[in-house]
Amino acid sequence: MIRYLLNWLGLGTLVGILSGTASAIFLALLSVATDFRDSHQWLLALLPAVGFGIGYIYHHYGANSVKGNNLLLEELYQSKNPIPLRMTPLVLFGTIFTHLFGGSAGREGTAVQMGGSLADQLTKCFSLDVESRRIILICGVAGGFASVFGTPLAGAVFSLEWMFNRKFRPRSIFPAFWTAFVAHWVCELGWGIGHTSYAIAEIAPHTLINLLWIIPAGIAFGLAARLFAETGHLVGDVFKKTISYPPLRPVIGGAIVAMIVFSTGAYTYIGLGIPRIMEAFETPLPWYDFLAKTGLTGLTLGSGFKGGEVTPLFFTGATLGNALSAWIPLPLALLAGCGFVGVFSGATNTPIACTVMGMELFGYQAGIYLGIACLVAFVFSGRGSIYSAQQVGWKKRLP
C-alpha cells in the first residue's frame, strides 16, 4: 500500500503539472483568440481557408490523432498503441484557430486530449505495465478536465465514469483525484488562470411537487443531448461519404457556418458562447438558442474542425432550461443550471460526474435538483454518446 501511494503520488504529480500547465497555456491563448475575434468579426470569412489548413495537417501529419477523445477510450479498452505526443500541439493549435476564425466549439476535448497525450508519454519513461498505463490515462483525463473547468472533484469522477467499461478499478480512484487536484492547483494557483463563475440566484424549496417538476425538464435535457450527439455524428458521416479528401471537409463546413452566421447575424452562437450562457441564468432568451448552437457546433466539429463539445453542451442545456422556465414553475436560473449539467450528462453518459460538477459550480444547495436532472437526462438520452468509442455497461440494453 505504501509503495502504491508513493508511486501514484509521484506519477500523479507529474501528470497534474503537465496537464495543468497545458490547460493554462490553452486557456490563455483561447482568451486572446476569443477577444481578438470578437473585435474583428470579418475573420469568420477566412474560416474555410483555416479549415483546409487544419484538415491538411491532420490528414498528412496527424496519424491516429484525428480520432481525438475516441483514441483515448480505445487505448483504455484495448491498450494497443502509444498515444502520440503530436496530439497535444495539433489539438491545441487546431482548437485555437477554430475559435479565432469563428467556429462553434468547446474546450474540454482539447484539454482531455492534451492531458491524455502528455500522460501517456510517461508510460515508456517509467516502463509502466498495461494496468498502470490505464490508470495514467485516467489521470491525464482527470487533470485535463479538472484544470480547464476549475472543478477537480468533477474532473476525477468524470475520468473514472467516462472511461468505465463495466469493470471498475478501485486502484484508479486515488490517482485520479490526486492528479485532478494537482492539475487544478497548477492551473489556477500556479499560473493564475481563472475560471468562469456561475450562480443560481434562487433555489426552490425542496418540496415533492418541485422535485417532480424536474422530471419533465430532465426528459427534455436527455432528448436534447441525444439530438446534439446524433447531429454531430450525422454531419460527420455525411461529410465522410460525400467528400473523399478529408482536408476539403472543413472547407465546406466552414463555408456553410460562415454563410449562416453572416446572413443571420448569429454571432452569439460561434466560439464558446459563454456570454450567452451567463445570460441564460439571468433573463429570458429566445427559445431556439439551444437548436442554433446544436446545429452550428455539429457543422463545425462534424466537418473536421477541432475543439470540445462540452461547453456547447453547457450552452445548449442552459438555454433550453431557460426556455423551459416559461412552462415549468421553477426559478429560471435553477432550470438553466439543471440544463447546464443535464444535457452534458445525457451526451456523455456521466450522470455522477455532472451532478458533482453542478454542485462545485452552483453550490450544494441545488444538489438534489441537479442530480435528478442528470439521472433522468442520462436515461432518456438513449444509448448514444458524443464519443462513438464509449462503452457503457447496462445502458447498452436501453432503447
UniProtKB/TrEMBL annotation:
Membrane protein topology class: Multi-pass membrane protein
Keywords on record: Membrane, Transmembrane, Transmembrane helix
Domain of life: Bacteria
Main location: membrane
Subcellular location: Membrane
Sequence intervals crossing the membrane: 6-30, 42-61, 135-160, 172-191, 211-229, 250-270, 326-349, 361-380
Name assigned to this protein: Voltage-gated chloride channel family protein
The species this protein was found in: Algoriphagus aquatilis
